[in-house]
Fold this protein.
Amino acid sequence: MDQTVETILIISVILGTTVFTVAGVWVILILRELKGLVKKFHLLIESAEETVVSINKSASMLPGIVDDLKDSAKSWSILKQGIGMLITVAQRYQQQQEDKKEKEVIQNINEDGNNSKLKKFFSRSK
């Protein structure tokens, strides 16, 4: 073979090797970047999953909170009714005491009236 052909073949082999080496390094760098991107994406998905789970837990607690609020509203209603009944009973008791005092006063007046001089006077005249 000719020296020129050998030189061209050696240069071609060297250039081909260099090109393939550079392409191989370039592919390795791209794959590393892709690996880092996949890790970041995985962390993002895990974070989103945790957020969704947290929201689901919070959302699942809402009906319980609403039921608790309803129960407490019922309790307040019952307590309000009980206080209203106590006030009514106290008012009735107070009215009964006032009526009792009034009857006692009327009875005292009647007793005093039975013992009054006018009554004695009229009872003698009969």
About this structure: The helical segments are 3-114, 117-125. The chain has one domain: 3-125.
